[in-house]
Design brief:
Length: 257
C-alpha cells in the first residue's frame, strides 16, 4: 500500500506546491508509482502540471466532485506517472460542506476516498492549501507523513509552531500514526546573511526535538520558469543544485520502512 505524504504549511507561498510537483517527479524518476493530489482551491498544482482548472471545473472533474459529489476518485486521475487529481475553485465550497458533515466525521472524507486508489501507487503526495482549515485537516488525517516546506525568511518560520500544535492534536485525536517526515527549507539564498540566520534559527529551535531538517532548496529563477511552462524544475534542470534536495527527500521517503 502506498505512503501518503501531506505537504502542509498554513503560510502562503512557502513552496508547498513547488515541492509537491518536484518531489512527485523525483519519485517517478526512481520508478515509483506516484499520485499527486491538489487539495488547494487555488488549483496551483493543477496549473503547475500544465492543466487548466477552469476547464476541468466545467466538466466537473476535480477533487471536489470526488470529495463532496459521488464521482469515484479513480475517475478524476489525469496522466500516468506522476498522475494528478486536479483541483479548481469549487473546492473552496468543500470546506463549508465538510463542516456540515461534521457529525459524520468529515475529517476523514479524503482518507476514505483515497482508500480506493492506495494500492495502485507507491506514493501519494497531497498539496495542502495555505490554511489550517478542514482541507488541510483532511490531508493530515489521510496522511502517514507530513513534510513542512518553510521559506527561509523571518515571517515563514513563525507559523511552524502553530502547525506542529495542529499536527500533535491530529496525532492525539484523529490519526495516531501520522509522522513528521521533516522540514524542507525552501527559496534559500546561501549568499544572503538573513537566510542563513533564519536557517540556523530553525536548526536551533528544533535541536531538542527529533525533527529532521532537510538540506535547503536553493532560490532560483528556474522555478518560476518551470511553473510557467507547466513542467517541474527537476525535469528542466535535472542536475542543478536547486533540485538536489528534492532528490534527497525522495530518497528519504523511499528508504522509510
Ligand atoms: N526554490 C525556489 N526558488 C525560487 N522561487 C521559488 C522556489 N520555490 C518556489 N518558488 C516560487 O515561489 C512561488 C510560491 O511557490 P509555491 O506556489 O510552491 O508556494 P505554496 O506554498 O504552494 O503557495 P500557496 O500557499 O499559495 O499554495 C512560486 O512563484 C514559485 O515558482
Ligand atoms: Mg500551493
Amino acid at each position: 500500500m502506498s505512503k501518503v505524504v501531506a505537504l502542509a504549511n498554513q503560510k502562503g507561498g512557502v513552496g508547498k506546491t513547488t515541492s509537491t510537483i518536484n518531489l512527485a517527479y523525483a519519485l517517478a524518476q526512481q520508478g515509483k508509482r506516484t499520485l499527486a493530489v491538489d487539495c488547494d482551491p487555488q488549483g496551483s498544482l493543477t496549473i503547475y502540471f500544465g492543466f487548466n482548472p477552469d476547464e476541468l471545473e466545467d466538466s466537473d472533474s476535480t477533487l471536489y466532485a470526488g470529495l463532496i459529489g459521488d464521482k469515484p476518485i479513480e475517475s478524476l486521475i489525469l496522466g500516468e506517472n506522476p498522475a494528478l487529481i486536479p483541483a479548481s475553485i469549487s473546492l473552496a465550497n468543500a470546506e463549508p460542506e465538510l463542516l456540515v458533515k461534521i457529525m459524520l466525521s468529515s475529517q476523514k472524507v479524503l482518507r476514505d476516498k483515497l482508500k480506493g486508489v492506495r494500492d495502485n501507487y507507491d506514493f501519494i503526495l497531497i498539496d495542502c492549501p495555505p490554511s489550517l482549515g478542514l482541507l488541510t485537516i483532511n490531508a493530515l488525517v489521510a496522511a502517514d507523513l507530513v513534510l513542512v516546506p518553510v521559506k527561509t525568511d523571518n515571517l515563514s518560520f513563525h507559523g511552524v509552531a502553530r502547525l506542529f500544535q495542529t499536527i500533535e492534536q491530529i496525532q492525539a485525536d484523529l490519526n495516531p500514526t501520522l509522522r513528521v517526515l521533516g522540514i524542507l527549507p525552501t527559496q534559500y539564498n546561501p549568499r544572503n546573511v538573513h537566510d542563513n540566520q533564519i536557517l540556523n534559527g530553525v536548526r536551533d529551535a528544533l535541536s531538542g526535538q527529533s525533527v529532521n531538517i532537510f538540506d535547503p532548496v536553493n532560490r532560483s529563477t528556474v522555478f518560476d520558469k518551470a511553473t510557467s511552462l507547466g513542467i517541474p524544475t527537476v525535469a528542466i534542470t535535472p542536475g542543478s543544485p536547486s533540485v538536489l534536495s528534492y532528490h534527497q527527500v525522495a530518497e528519504a521517503l523511499i528508504n522509510i520502512p
